[in-house]
Every structure is written in structure tokens, then in C-alpha cells.
Design goal:
Helix content is 26%, strand content 27%. By secondary structure, it is of the alpha+beta class.
């Protein structure tokens, strides 16, 4: 039997840590009523849309401070996303997804975002479970 010995070399200094590119905040299944679509009946009656967002953000500052101001407040973000879905109608859910992504990227801490907009009541004359668009946007 051998004793476990730590690897040689200096131990990492937490202050030298590089920002993570893999930390995520995920908000799934955010439901809001909107009047988006190309057909007049979609604009008149509206329908529910379901939004998922995945933010890439360095969570180390918030983990270290345990302070909500050091992270993206997902409750406040949800309020802003619901306001967009319930706001000015657009023809395409692609446009809606782009607006939602722009709102997420308005927080300078968000490096990239993937937005999925589900339209489960889309006017498709066949039985289906869901239709969605997924887009990813990031900083240059």
C-alpha cells in the first residue's frame, strides 16, 4: 500500500482563478401569454409561450460573497422576459427569441445566452407536441 502524496508544485491561489466559461444559470419553463404570430387570430386571442434561457456567467464572485448582487438575479430576469413576451407583438418567434437574448445580454456579466422559445399552440393543422426555436448569442 502506498500513501497518497499531493502533486508537486505550488497550490493554486483562489485570487488567481480565471473566470469560468462553464458556469451557468438556467431558467426553464417560464410561461407567459403573448400575441405573437403571422395570423390575425394569433394576434387577437394570443397564446402561451414557454421560454428557457441558459446564461453563461462566472458564478465565482457570487459563490465567494454569498450576495445576490454579485450574480444575475433570475427572479428579476424572469420579470423582464415575461414583459417582453407579453409586450409588443412580433410575427416570428425567431424575433421574439432574439429580443429575449438581447435582454439577457444587457447584463454585462452574461457572456452568452441560449434562448429557446416554445410555441405549443402554434397553428399547425397536425397533431404535435411542441414547436420551438433555439438561438445562441454571445459577446464578441
Amino acid at each position: 500500500m502506498t500513501d497518497h502524496q499531493p502533486a508537486a508544485g505550488p497550490s493554486p491561489d483562489p485570487g488567481d482563478a480565471r473566470p469560468s466559461t462553464t458556469d451557468r444559470i438556467v431558467l426553464t419553463g417560464l410561461r407567459a401569454h403573448g400575441r405573437h404570430g403571422v395570423y390575425p387570430q394569433e394576434r387577437a386571442a394570443g397564446q402561451d409561450f414557454v421560454v428557457d434561457v441558459e446564461l453563461t456567467v462566472d458564478l465565482a464572485p457570487a459563490a465567494a460573497s454569498d450576495d445576490v448582487t454579485d450574480t444575475v438575479h433570475y427572479g428579476e430576469l424572469a420579470d423582464r422576459l415575461v414583459a417582453i413576451v407579453g409586450g409588443e407583438p412580433v410575427n416570428l418567434i425567431e424575433t421574439l427569441a432574439d429580443r429575449l437574448a438581447a435582454q439577457c445580454l444587457a447584463d454585462h456579466r452574461v457572456r452568452s445566452v441560449t434562448v429557446t422559445v416554445h410555441k405549443p399552440q402554434a397553428p399547425i393543422p397536425h397533431q404535435f407536441t411542441d414547436v420551438a426555436v433555439v438561438l445562441t448569442r454571445g459577446r464578441p
